Amino acid sequence: MFESKSGILWVGGLGFFAFAFLSNGLLPMLMVTEPEKTAEQMVNSNVMYQFEELSRRYPESFAEHVGEPTEQRCADMLRLGRQIYIGEGCWHCHSQFVRPVSNESQRWGKVAFPEEFHNELQRPVMFGTRRVGPDLSREGGRRGNDWQAVHLFKPKMVSSDSVMPEYPWFFDGSPDKPNLRGFAVITYIQWLGSWLESYPYYEELDELQQAEDY
Amino acid sequence: MITSAGLVDHSDHEKLVISQLVRWHFLAALLFLTISMLAGILMALQLVHWNPLNGIELLAAGRWRMIHTNAVAYGFLANAFLGALHWSVPRLTLRPVASKLVSYFIFYAWQAVVLATAVGIIVGPSFQTAGWVADLSRQWGIAFSLGAQGLEWGETPFWVDPIALVGLALVAYNFMIPISKSNTPMYVTLWYFIAAFVWTFLTYAMGNLLPEYTVSGANAGAIGGLFIHDLVGLFVTPLGWGLMYYFVPILLKKPIWSHGLSLVGFWGLAFFYPLNGIHHFLYTPIPMFLQYGAVVATVAVELVVTTVIVNFVGTLWGEGKTFVTNLPIRYFYTGMIMYFITCTQCAMQVTLTFQKLIHFTDWVVGHAHLVMFGVFSLWIFGMMTYLFPRVLQRQWYSSNLAEWHYWLSTIGVGIMALDLILGGLFQGYYWASLQPWDVSVNGSQPFWITRVFAGLMMFGGLLCFLYNLWMTYRSPVTAPVPVEQPVAKAAT
Ligand code: HEM
Fold it and tell me: Which of chain B's residues have a Cβ under 8 Å away from the Cβ of A8?
């Protein structure tokens, strides 16, 4: 068997692969029992608050590119925003899971839990493998829409040492005129973590910490 | 014929090999390697604030980072391996490939796949908001991306996947037919090849279809991990080692040291490697028992790897001077040394203790370059250095340039890997100490700047090689360069 064609083909090639696939792939897949949530079901009041805020802050651009700030439009924006997040390779610089180690829960808040990934917008799951920039799974509501817009347009404007690339093509010429892609990405960012009951306010924590140090 | 009885006449080998395809695949490989390296340099420049192209949509660093990894895997490695397969399989089986036509078709189809992937990744996102995309999505009830898909190395746009799968199936068919027809005992290389054909197809299908179209969520991430890992472990690794088992004994003119160890190495890899995938996502919400399983299997792989390395060191034993005098052998064994280092590193970094610190940092990027460039690319450079004179019927234009290529590549990747591994440790400590994020970005600058220069060294090495090749092409045909003969199979 060890040196025969059939042994190598059936046992080594197919058999061992199948064994690994069943035990390491299919088994965990089958452990997911609840049905996958749709983007519509993932829209919540926190992200709607930001979505409506976008429509008030950039009324003309919003009306032109997005239309009405309805829940359906919000879900559409989440889908599109996720596609752009993938297409632009944001996930090669940003992770989306908070680990239970290395003080990560102090920096970003609640440790990642399985239920938050069981939805359409995490197919394929956006765990990421590299952090050049910070984890984004708790980013929603952390910054205002205007901050996010300016940051995407030219990160150095708000974060002087940033190495994040510029994305002027999310805008019609200036950071106060997001286009469809801009709105979609900002909505998507504001959605990340919006399902949690409360946001951790890191900046405040930082300041408190520093105040204590002095 | 390769029989345990000894050597027979090999003059007919020439006729079995389509040497034009060996050449074409190698040239395509070098073209994509050049593109990939330029993309890597672009991303490296972005990270040190020196990107002159920042803000140009079609040259976006984020998109080109995906070109970097995809061009390397599917453009460079796949093409180089196809070239080497065309050279070695007919010689090992004494039969031509199943069909010449299919071979040529694969060549063109595969370049189309790589180019389509690149075009999809680069321009796909720009068209994502076009009206017809929205219409189609609504009609079919699926939200599809024109550009990259969201899995590392599975970025290949969904509309390229079917073509790539057909291509891979044809590759398997084309090379499996001569293998199945041959009735001599199979040499080690062919074990690896058979397994690799099956695995590559299955891995590609699994990674590109399941995570995108089946279940979502953390447990489905396990499939993603399996894919990232299997692409390296079940496509690149078996083909790479298979070719080492082929070329090393031929160049050293002696059989592999121990047939028994070859068996241990192959079957150990076949069993343990596919079980490693989840080690890419430790500390995620994937069930802990699976994570522990992956850690144990990974450590087991390192033990298997050690047996393979011992086997090759045993083969070199007594011929140590060829390491100095014979450039392809030097490439091969340098790669093996780096392989051993990478695998030792892997056995450490896979432990949960290490993971706390180094996951998500440049440590991993250092590891990736050490194995992809330090091992597999060096092996491929060695094969090319050996084969080009034989398919071109010309001696290398300059052995000096060939030496420069070796040294720039080796030292370049050595610096890059050391630098990034060290930088990764710093990043891990910056993060864990809860300093503002900027501190880690600024603290990484010295490492990232060093990486740019290490990358330029590696690229300089490639330029030496390309210039040397160009001049070799232009020089007149010399007497045919002798092809070394295979040696008798090792006694069991
Ligand atoms: C000119 C030389 C090169 C430079 C400057 C370079 C630079 C880079 C950069 C900047 C990244 C992104 C790292 C990050 O996300 O932080 C990267 C990733 C990567 N590169 Fe290269 N690279 C070079 C050559 C190569 C070659 C020749 C290969 C393979 C044969 C390679 C394989 C990879 C892989 C596999 C990754 C993904 C790492 C990961 O996600 O962990 N690189 N490279």
Answer: 186, 191, 194-195
Test A181 with B128 for CB contact under 8 angstroms.
Answer: yes
Residue B347 belongs to a domain with what CATH number?
1.20.210.10
Same domain, A94 and A20: no
Contact B103, B174 (CB under 8 A): yes
Report the 10 Å Cβ neighbour count for B439.
Answer: 14
What is the per-residue pLDDT across B151-175, written as a single tens digit (0 to 9) for each?
888 888 888 999 999 999 999 999 9
Domain membership of residue A194 as a residue range: 37-213
Q: Which of A31, A97, A163 sits opposite B284 (nearest CB)?
A: A97
CATH number at residue A69: 1.10.760.10
B331 and B475 part of one domain: yes
* A23: DSSP letter: I
pLDDT tens digit sequence for A110-132: 899 988 999 989 988 999 989 99
Is the CB of residue B288 less than 8 Å from the CB of residue A28?
Answer: no
pTM: 0.94
Flag if A165 and B216 touch (Cβ within 8 Å).
no
Range of the domain at B414: 320-485
Number of domains in chain A: 2
SS3 (DSSP) at A178:
strand
Q: What is the structure's pLDDT at B219?
A: 76
Among A14, A87, A92, select the one facing B125 at the smallest CB separation: A87
CB B362 within 8 Å of CB B447: yes
Q: Whose CA is nearest to atom 13 of ligand 1?
A: B365
Distance (Å) from CA B369 to ligand 1 centroid: 6
Nearest CA to ligand 1 atom 28: B373
- Tell me the ipTM for this assembly: 0.91
